[in-house]
Amino acid sequence: MSCVVPMEATDTTIQRAGATGNIKATREDWLKLALETLISDGVERVRVLTLGQKLDVSRSSFYWYFKSRQDLLDQLLDYWRQTNTRFIVERAMRPSATVIRGVMSIFECWVDERLFDPQLDFAIRAWARRSPAIRRALDEADEERVNAIRDMFMRHGYDEEDAFVRARVLYFMQIGYYSLELNEPMSSRLAQVALYLRSFTGQEPPAEDVEEFSRYVEETISRKR
Questions:
Q1: How far apart are CA 128 and CA 138, in angstroms?
Q2: Are 168 and 155 in contact (CB under 8 A)?
Q3: Given its phi and psi angles, is residue 203 left (phi above 0), alpha (psi -120 to 50 degrees) or beta?
Q4: Cα(200)–Cα(12) distance, rounded to whole angstroms?
Q5: pLDDT computed for residue 10 by the predictor
Q6: What does the DSSP assignment read for 9-26?
Q7: How far is the C-alpha of 223 from the C-alpha of 189, rounded, in Å?
Q8: What residues contact residue 51 under an 8 Å CB cut-off, 6+ apart?
Q9: Domain 24-66: which CATH number of 1.10.1330, 2.60.120, 1.10.10, 2.40.50
Q10: Confidence of residue 189 (pLDDT cuts 50, 70, 90)
Q11: Residues 212, 218, 224, 225: is their CA dihedral positive or negative?
Q12: What's residue 115's pLDDT?
């Protein structure tokens, strides 16, 4: 997986000798590698010595950027909050003329992994099974995401209980989809967009809205190529 960690890097860098001369290991290098390791191998493998060996820098260089391993883990957790949770909430809060449009905005998170990275989300869920503190953070994130979607439905006239159930169905269905690792072609999913919109909202989606979302998907896929 290609991880882009949009965290502000410090100007200080550590020089390491290599076959091609001096190479800089930045704070972003540490964060990017730690994030990739968390996703591929789990939190137990996010170790200062292991990361330093992979970066070919001394372990002491780590402490130019981080107070401790726990500081690094805290920053990884914050990165997850500032991406996966933040973008779902932002899309749910986006002004929309209709509930169909509101749901389509949330659907963008399921299409563009720059908005929601399912591998990162499940790395956090695996971590939560080992840590009560991470479990609490995960529960809070799930609640925040569902509540944001619920509020979107309420803004479009659904009563609170109806909006809450629809939000849970929309959100947890997608989390379950990722959990089961279903490898369904995007073309198949797109063919069912109108049915999903109708199921989640109880309203008939206009053809032009479905077409617009299909164009968004195609453009997103094109960017990845």
A1: 7
A2: no
A3: beta
A4: 50
A5: 38
A6: PPS--EEEEETTEEEEE-
A7: 19
A8: 30, 33, 34, 37, 62
A9: 1.10.10
A10: confident
A11: negative
A12: 95
205 pLDDT higher than 90: yes
Residues forming a β-bridge with 17? 22
Residues 77 and 134 sit within 8 Å (Cβ to Cβ)? yes
Mean pLDDT across 155-174: 97
Helices 99-111 + 160-179 axis angle, to 10 = 20
Q: Which residues sit opposite 115 in a β-bridge? A: none
Domain boundaries, the chain: 24-66, 85-223
Model confidence at 5, pLDDT cuts 50, 70, 90, reads: low
Separation in Å, CA 1 to CA 4, 15, 94, 106, 114: 10, 26, 29, 23, 12
Q: What angle do CA 180, 132, 113 make, to 5 degrees?
A: 40
What's the 3-state SS for 122-172?
HHHHHHHCCCHHHHHHHHHHHHHHHHHHHHHHHHCCCCHHHHHHHHHHHHH
> Which tens digits make up the pLDDT trace of 158-167?
999 999 999 9
CA distance 86 to 202: 27
Does residue 206 sit in helix, strand or coil?
A: coil
**Amino acid sitting at position 114:** R
